[in-house]
Amino acid sequence: MLRVTTRQTDNGFTLIVEGRVKGPWVGELEKAWQAARKLNSKEAVVVDLSAVSFADWRGRKLLLEMRNQGAKLVGSSMFLSKMLEGTAGAGLKFEN
Questions:
Q1: Model pTM score
Q2: For position 29, what pLDDT does the model report?
Q3: What is the pLDDT of residue 79?
Q4: What is residue 84's predicted lDDT score, i.e. its pLDDT?
Q5: Helix 24-39 vs helix 57-68: angle between axes, to the nearest 10 degrees?
Q6: Architecture in CATH of 2-89
Q7: For site-directed labelling of 22, which of 32, 50, 79, 91 has its Cα 20 to 30 A away?
Q8: What b/e string do you get for 71-90 counting C-beta neighbours within 10 Å, with b at 16 or more?
Q9: Domain boundaries, given as residue ranges, for the chain
Q10: What is the DSSP string of the chain?
Q11: Number of neighbours of residue 35 by Cβ within 10 angstroms
């Protein structure tokens, strides 16, 4: 299961992601991210991963794509950070 909550702040939008980024939930996260990007074209969308417990290969791919397109990924666990820093994510920095 995955829950994505969108919060508008003075600086733009924050997506608060909770649960497991896998299977059909990857598409739901992508929809929420695309919607936030359209509404907030001036500032980076912040993606809070503090409550994410798992991401499959599709989830990892989406998170890396989001980061490459300007999303600011914050709060990831050590596990998720290491997963995202693998071969496809080499050189990317994720804020804890």
A1: 0.82
A2: 96
A3: 78
A4: 80
A5: 10
A6: 2-Layer Sandwich (3.30)
A7: 91
A8: bbbebbeeebbebbbeeebe
A9: 2-89
A10: -EEEEEEEETTEEEEEEEEEE-THHHHHHHHHHHHHHHH-SSSPPEEEEEEEEEE-HHHHHHHHHHHHTT-EEE---HHHHHHHTSGGGTT---B-
A11: 15
Number of other residues whose CB lies within 10 A of the CB of residue 19:
15
Cβ atoms 50, 14 nearer than 8 A = no
**Per-residue pLDDT for the chain (96 aa), expressed as one digit of tens each?**
899 999 988 878 899 999 999 999 999 999 999 998 888 777 889 999 999 999 999 999 999 999 999 999 999 888 788 888 865 444 444 444
Tokens for 30? 């992508």
Q: How wide is the angle at C-alpha 50 spanned by C-alphas 49 and 53, nearest 5°?
A: 80
- Strand ordering across the sheet containing 46-55: 2-9, 12-21, 46-55, 72-74
